[in-house]
Amino acid sequence: MVAAWKAAGLTYNRYLAVAARVVRRSLKEDKRLAAERRGEMDLRFAKWENGKQGESKNLAAALAESTPAASS
Q: Which family does it belong to (predicted)?
């Protein structure tokens, strides 16, 4: 039996991120704000091609761009 997140075409890390976002959004206002601050990321990544580093991008912004549902 295949896990639901795998059948949906998600990686486990993406599944965890979606689940955490859903839990944070379901909290009452004061608890939600505190949880959202803990969930913020300040990670950067860059793709390497032909031995050269590409543009460095913020991981949170790249995730938001790749999932249209995340912005709503």
A: Belongs to the eukaryotic ATPase epsilon family.
Note whether 48 and 22 are same-domain residues: no
Domain with 50, as residue range(s), is: 42-72
Number of separate domains in the chain: 2
Q: What DSSP letter does each residue of the chain carry, written as one string?
A: ---HHHHTT--HHHHHHHHHHHHHHHS-HHHHHHHHHHH----EE--EETTEE---EEHHHHHHHH-GGGG-
Pairing outcome for strands 48-49 and 52-53: antiparallel
Q: Kindly state whether residues 3 and 36 are assigned to the same domain.
A: yes
CB 56 within 8 A of CB 44: yes
For the cut 60, the answer to whether the pLDDT of residue 15 exceeds it is yes
Euclidean distance between the first and the last CA atom of the chain, given in angstroms as a whole number: 32
